[in-house]
Specification:
Layout lengths: L10 H8 L5 E5 L5 H14 L10 E6 L2 H14 L8 E5 H12 L10 E3 L1 H13 L8 H13 L4 H6 L3 H20 L2 E3 H14 L1 H10 E6 L7 H11 L5 E5 L14 H4 L1 H4 L4 E5 L7 H11 L28 H14 L10
Parallel strand pairs: 1-7, 1-8, 2-3, 2-6, 4-5, 6-7
Helix pairs in contact: 1-2, 2-3, 4-9, 5-6, 5-8, 9-10, 9-11
Length: about 350
């Protein structure tokens, strides 16, 4: 009998969908169908009645952008027509943590109707504080970057001050302390606080942690290679009891270290969860063989990477051409110009 959830999947994809219990690490190379795996996995869990509103719990799927969350939700809704919407929560780390804190803010002596400050709000708050510390030689934006990095590492003002080295760090510690005090007076948190404070609340209140773990029996995280320390700890706390955690990512595609992403989160997942089942999605549906060979020749040199080699049933394709650009702007202009020329060569763009 045909199964719309499984029939279109290749064997590793099917294994990733059907392996519902315990920790699962899906190493998904570029163009290997990871979104299909994620959506079909959620649909399978709901279809089989492993989680859902009738059980008093739900599936939590975490993405990195609102656009990705909307697209994932739409695909899952198509696959699970008629399913109770309460059975699934899809969102970014910030959105999920904000919802949690609306319930848990009193644990941290904050009002449930706290305000979330955006970049402009935070810079306006930091301006006067930075002005009191000219020795630091920082702009409000630079101070914000340093404070953001501290929060993503789960270091509050006191922890940051204790580790301060030199005049700049000491000034930032004072700015950080004053900034958090000003936020508290205004009943506000910034975006980085949403993650940091969600972790603090779960650590501080065992009853809250128990309720949130019971609320989400299955947790899935997309783009796991891009998680920072706060996101890593949040996921570990939520999945620490049932351990039904599925993370999908590719260490070869980690590009957000400058935003605090820690590649060790995916490289050491099997150490954190020794019973992990690791599944590799290595069939590429997007590129030609020559493109994959060229890409592999580059990433194979990455130190500490998870071993994998993409392959494709696609054609050999045109030879790969190397273009040496002077800088990123010239590179972008060259790419844009070539894209603009494609229609004259008979190419068509997909919708």
């Amino acid at each position: 009998m045909a199964d719309p959830l499984l029939d279109s999947l290749n064997p590793p994809q099917r294994e990733a969908v059907l392996t519902t219990e315990g920790p699962v690490l899906v190493l998904a190379g570029a163009g290997s169908g990871k979104t299909r795996v994620l959506t079909h996995r959620v649909a399978h869990v709901l279809r089989e009645g492993l989680a859902g509103a009738e059980h008093g719990n739900a599936v939590l799927a975490v993405t990195f952008t609102n656009k990705a969350a909307r697209e994932m939700r739409a695909r899952i809704d198509v696959l699970t027509a008629g399913a109770d919407p309460r059975s699934l929560q899809v969102g970014t780390f910030h959105a999920i943590c904000a919802r949690l804190l609306r319930r848990a803010a009193p644990v941290l002596d904050y009002p449930p109707d706290f305000t979330i400050y955006d970049t402009d709000d935070t810079l306006a708050l930091l301006g006067p504080l930075v002005g009191r510390h000219p020795a630091a030689g920082l702009t409000p934006r630079e101070a914000r970057v340093r404070i953001s990095a501290a929060k993503n590492a789960l270091r509050g003002p006191e922890e940051f001050a204790a580790e301060a080295r030199g005049i700049v760090d000491s000034c930032v510690a004072e700015i950080y302390r004053g900034y958090q005090a000003a936020l508290a007076r205004n009943g506000a948190w910034d975006f980085d606080d949403l993650l940091r404070c969600a972790v603090l609340a779960l650590r501080r209140d065992p009853a809250l942690l128990h309720r949130e773990r019971a609320r989400f029996r299955y947790v899935l995280v997309d783009e796991y290679q891009d998680t920072n320390h706060a996101q890593y700890r949040f996921v570990q706390l939520l999945a620490g009891e049932h351990r039904n955690l599925c993370v999908v990512g590719d260490d070869d595609q980690s590009i957000y270290a400058f935003r605090g992403a820690d590649l060790r989160n995916i490289l050491e997942f099997e150490k954190d969860f020794p019973e992990t089942r690791t599944i590799r999605l290595e069939q590429n549906y997007r590129s030609t063989r020559r493109i994959l060979a060229a890409a592999h020749a580059v990433v194979a040199r990455n130190p500490g990477r998870k071993p994998k080699e993409l392959w494709t049933a696609n054609d050999e394709g045109d030879p790969v051409e190397l273009v040496l650009a002077a800088d990123d702007r010239e590179e972008a202009r060259e790419i844009a110009a070539r894209i603009a020329d494609l229609p004259s060569e008979g190419a068509t763009f997909g919708g």
